[in-house]
Amino acid sequence: MLMYFLLDDEARDSRPSTSEVPSRRSKVGSSQGIGIKSSTIHGSYTSLESIVNNVKEVRVGDLFPSKEELHMKMQLLSIGNHFQFKVKKSTKTLLVMSCIVEECKWCVRATKLKDCESFRIRKYSPDHTCSLDALHFDHRQASSKLIGHCIKSKFERTSQCYRPNNIIDDIKKQCGMTLGYNKAWRAREVALGLARGVAVHDIFYKCSKAYRVVEFNQIIAQIMGTDASVAQYLIEADPTKWARSHFDGRRYCIMTTNIAECLNGILKDARELPITKLVEHIRGLLQKWFLERREATVAKMSTLMTKWAEKKLRCRSNKSCCYRVHPINLYEHHVIDGYLNGFVNLIEKTCTCRKF
Fold it and tell me: Domain named Transposase MuDR plant: which ranges (predicted)?
C-alpha cells in the first residue's frame, strides 16, 4: 500500500508551513535563500521503507543518509504533487534533478558531505512554470522498486494472494496512475524479496551445488541461522533429491532428475499411438536430434573437444598448477590443494572430492 497516498488532506495541511513545498502550480519564491542553519537531518531512517512511511516536504539544507534515499524521497514527492522529473547529473558526489520540461525552473541540487555517504540539498527551486500537459498517466517516478517497497507489507502474510492485477487496481484507485502489467510484476518481485528475503535463495543454490557433505552442512547451518523454517523444509524435502552432495548417482552437471517431464511435453500427441509406433517415433526423434547436434558441433569445432570442454580444461589446468600430487600407486594419487585434499582413482575415474 502506498503510504504517501493514504495521507488525507487534513494530514497534509497540518504540516508546518515553514518547511512546506508549494503545490505544483503555486507561485512562491525559490528556496535558495533558506539558510543551512534551518536544515532538517533525515538521519532517523533505518531503511528505504522508512522513507516511504515518513514522507515530509524538503527544503534547502535537508540531509539524507544516502543518494538513493534522497532520490526515493523526491520520487514520492513528485507522485504526490503530480509532476515528473529527470536526473540531469548523477555522480558519487553530486545529484542534480530537473523537471522533464526543459523550460521549467523546478530543480534540485544535492552534494555529498565529506567523509560520509550523506547528501545535503544545496539548491531547491519548487516553482513549476511548465504546463499540466507534461504529466502522463504512467508516472515515470513510479518505478517498480519504489512500488515494491510500498507494498512490502502485503506479502508479509503468506495466506494473502496479492497478484499484479491487484497492484494495478490499487495504484489506479489510490493515485490515478495506469500501471503496466510488467511493472506491476517487477514491483511484486521486489516486494517478495523484501518481505521474504532473497539471501536464502542464493544460499540454497550454493547448498544444492556443493560437492562435499561437509560443505553442504556448513551452508545448511547458514540457512538455519537466516531462517530456521526454510532449513527444516529443505531437510524434510530429502536432500538426496535436490542436493548434489547427497545424490548417489551421476548427474553429469545437470541439476534436475525429472527429465521425463521434457519428453512428456514432446510426446504429447505421439502418446496416442500404439506402443510399437510410439517406440519407433521416439527412436526417430533421438536419431534426428543427435544428427543435428553432431553436425552443428563439428561445423564449429576447431579443436579435438568442444569450446565448452576446452574452456573447462584450461580453467582447471590453471588451477592445478599449484596442486601437490603424491602417487600412491600407478593409478591412485593423493592430491593436496591448499586446505583441501582428495584421493584420485584413475581406473574408477573418481575422486573423494566428488567433483571428478
Answer: 58-121
